[in-house]
Write a structure and sequence with these properties.
The chain is an alpha/beta fold. The protein folds into 3 domains: 94 residues, Ubiquitin-like (UB roll); 93 residues, Translation factors (Elongation Factor Tu (Ef-tu), domain 3), CATH 2.40.30; 129 residues, Nucleotide-binding domain of ferredoxin-NADP reductase (FNR) module (Rossmann fold, 3-Layer(aba) Sandwich). It has 7 helices and 19 strands.
Length: 340
Amino acid sequence: MTQHQILIAGEAQAFSQTDGDTLLRAALRAGVGFPYECSSGGCGSCKFELLEGEVENLWPEAPGLSERDRRKKRLLACQCRAKGPLRISVRTAAEYRPSIVPQRRQAELVDASAITHDIHEFRFQAPGHADFLAGQYALLSIPGVPAPRAYSMSNIANAHGEWHFQIRRVADGKATDRLFHHLQKGDSIEIDGPYGLAHLRETSSRDIVCVAGGSGLAPMLSIARGASQAGMLKDRQLHFFYGARTTNDLCGENFLRELPEFGERIHYYPVVSQPEEGAQVIWSGAAGFVHEHVKRTLGQRMSQFEFYFAGPPPMTQSLQEMLMLEYRVPFDQVHFDRFF
């Protein structure tokens, strides 16, 4: 196995990259607080400057880099592999240091079932404990797909090695085509994780708000399940908002009903943005964008909550702007990972 030494300029830190890892994954595996969010080239959080050495750039056109970044020869650690020893410049921080070091493991598909017409739950079994924080994600290496894909777990850490993912089928998506139409029970994939910073904060005493759209359901269910298991809902409320395009896209309530606090301390708010499109039943519930319903429901109490959200970029952007600009919710009470 080949190893390349990576030195971080101005810091007494170094780490090794082995075969198959990117700079980012190697850094996190070594416990280095390398800045990141999506691990897939979209957000741009893991930018660094290459001072010495040579890298293989896996995706030169990644949207996480602007033209200005490229002119300044900045690179994305999640899309680069060292070809030899490197010296790089990046500002590390303790907040990015993983509390659970990500690991690779082979996992077998044991079950797949439909949640909606385009969201399925895939359950994998791997040796050893499934160790992760509620709300985190993993990178799945799917046979026939050239690069790993990031998907959030919907379950919580367990001793049985179970990793559950609720994934939305993407039109012309190579990864979801393989998952939905080709992967069979008994087939094996590699799961690398956990990753992600938008995990449940068990030390917070505030009531919890989860906002999900599409397959953002998975990490928000993990948050709700984690809060329930940790006993956080004995003296807190959890408000769970789910935004769907049509009534056929609504989901989530049946999973929340499995938790003992449902109805008393867990409250579910479904919202439909296009209630008439393809509707089989007349929708009489909340309509519009989900962030608008959060505003109508919580109003001036916004700063009293711990917020978690996941879903399409327009939804997460609207929520971030509403919470932080309009209601001045402190940054450390707002938790989400950017995906594109």
